[in-house]
Amino acid sequence: MTAPTAPDRPPEAALAGGVAGPDALEPLVAEALEALRRGAERRGGPLPAGGPTAVAEGLRALLDPSELLPELGDPFALGTLVEALAATAADPADPACAAHLHVPPLAVAVAADFAAAAVNASLDSWDQAPGSTSVELAVIRVLAELVGLVRPEAAAGVLTTGGTESNLMALLLARDTFPRDQFAEGRLAVHCSEAAHFSIARSAALLGLDRDAVVPVQTAPDGRMDPRVLDWALADARADGRVPMCVVATAGTTDLGAVDPLPAVAAVTRRHGVRLHVDAAYGGAALFSGRLAPLLDGVAQADTISLDLHKLGWQPIAAGVLLVRDAALFEPLELRAAYLNPVDDEEAGYTSLLGRSLRTTRRADAFKIAVTLRTLGRSGLGALVDRCHDLARFAAERIASEPRLELVAEPVLSTVLFRCLPQRDGVGPVATDRLNAVLRRRLLEQGSAVVGRTEVGTGPGSVRLKLTLLNPHTTTADLDRLIARVVTAGTEAEAAADAQVDADEADAHAEPEADADAEEQREANS
């Protein structure tokens, strides 16, 4: 029998792994880095100018279906597409890109992530990720110690795609401690702050709980859950025949950065015998900071904790974490697949992490976290957290001193809520909302700034703008320029609205005159 011949291997089909992998990667990485530079220069700001239409038009020829999968490959595709990616991106490394919990990742974390991608470990079985399995376990142990879990050696955890997945898993683990008939009959309830992340309600729906299962608990004016109201709500739920399944406390709300009073909330949950989950996806990284760590006093009393290090941890997406107080809490997920985690392999020390995740295939996201933790240390990361907190306080002070702007509250972490006020007196709340919405889109259209938008309360007058300051390299001069752009965009938006009103009024006056002229002409013709 003739041995099969190896197919031709063009350079573009080279592999990233093995001894030869680095040689194949080296010119490609250099090409990609140069294309990133060209794309950033083309973009020239925090995001491309021209809005959705311009971005779609710029990509249309490049990503036409007939071009995206050609019969013959394009050896220049990498450079072309990477440049296009960078040119049409929103760049969180630009100081004027300050809308969301979307960080500029640390260069060292990106380099580590690149290495993890080249190795391409899969965390569903030990034999696909020997070293990466150990790295994830070590990172979980360090983070359990960081949050102060009493017995970090007994704690466990898993890397997730972010707070949404972590929250879903936390509620699933809480739900599955109850007999199935209780949640099938719609009796289980989840209590959380009315400012809790939307993923709590979404997770409850995905878990088959009824639409009334999530009970929002009133917050104080500072955005924190009121433990007394929680106490009453838990008692009321039981009186109504519902079974409180879990209380979700928030450590860092998306808008205000508010941290619920964790010790008091934990005391209430203990008194009622209810599981406590702390969603610290945003605020958890405050534990790196000596100044801000006291905000999270009491977090160690939780049964489960969500962290997101792709927020105030400066990791490339994704770097979510779910920690559990005791590894036994993962029992509902402990399923076996003979080809991945047989019992005798586990007993022989070949640890599998399959039973800790909703996913099977998982990349080694813990590696970039491990490299970052060791490279910067707790004090280095704490300094970055403190810098962003300082920037938020400066921005709040600057906004409060600007007559056209109104500050909502002093910042807790790194978000600042405010709005632009109309120049004219007597402008109502609906028009004020429209002004803020329009000025934000004006900045996006110009490609000059990315400012967030949210609502405080409900109804007319609730629209607010938001700065989320997660770039520690931002300067106070950068913030001065950004705030000045907001004010200028407000002035321009208001002037455009006034011009439109004048034009509409002119058209309204012109129509009767035109009608009269037409009538006279008809009479003359007759």
Widest beta sheet: strand line-up = 2-8-7-6-5-3-4
Overall geometric form:
globular
CATH level-four homologous superfamily name of the domain at 121-363: Type I PLP-dependent aspartate aminotransferase-like (Major domain)
Give the % helix: 40-55%
Gap from first CA to last CA? 103 Å
Radius of gyration: 28 Å
The chain-level mean pLDDT equals 92
Order of helices and strands: HHHHEHHEHHEHEHEHEEEHHEEHEEH
Beta strands, count: 12
Oligomer: single chain
User: Which spans have pLDDT < 50 for at least 5 consecutive residues?
Assistant: none
As for the CATH topology of the domain at 121-363, it is Aspartate Aminotransferase, domain 2
Tally of separate helices: 15
Category by helix and strand content: alpha/beta
Largest sheet: 7 strands, mixed
Strand residue content: 5-15%
What is the CATH architecture assignment of the domain at 121-363?
A: 3-Layer(aba) Sandwich
What is the CATH domain class of the domain at 121-363? Alpha Beta
Concise synopsis of the structure shown:
By secondary structure, the chain is α/β, with parallel strands linked by helices. Helices cover 45% and strands 12% of the residues. The chain is globular.
Description:
By secondary structure, the protein is of the alpha/beta class. Among the domains are: 20-89; 121-363, Type I PLP-dependent aspartate aminotransferase-like (Major domain) (Aspartate Aminotransferase, domain 2). 45% of the residues lie in helices and 12% in strands. The protein has 15 helices and 12 strands. It has helices at residues 21-43, 51-60, 65-68, 77-87, 107-119, 130-147, 163-175, 180-184, 199-206, 227-239, 262-272, 343-347, 365-400, 429-446, 476-525; strands at residues 97-98, 156-160, 188-193, 214-217, 243-250, 275-280, 304-308, 320-324, 405-407, 415-420, 450-455, 463-468. The strands form 2 sheets. Strands 2-8-7-6-5-3-4 form a 7-stranded mixed β-sheet, with helices on both faces. Strands 1-11-12-10-9 form a 5-stranded mixed β-sheet. A hairpin with a 7-residue loop joins strand 11 (450-455) and strand 12. The longest helix has 50 residues, at 476-525. The termini are far apart.
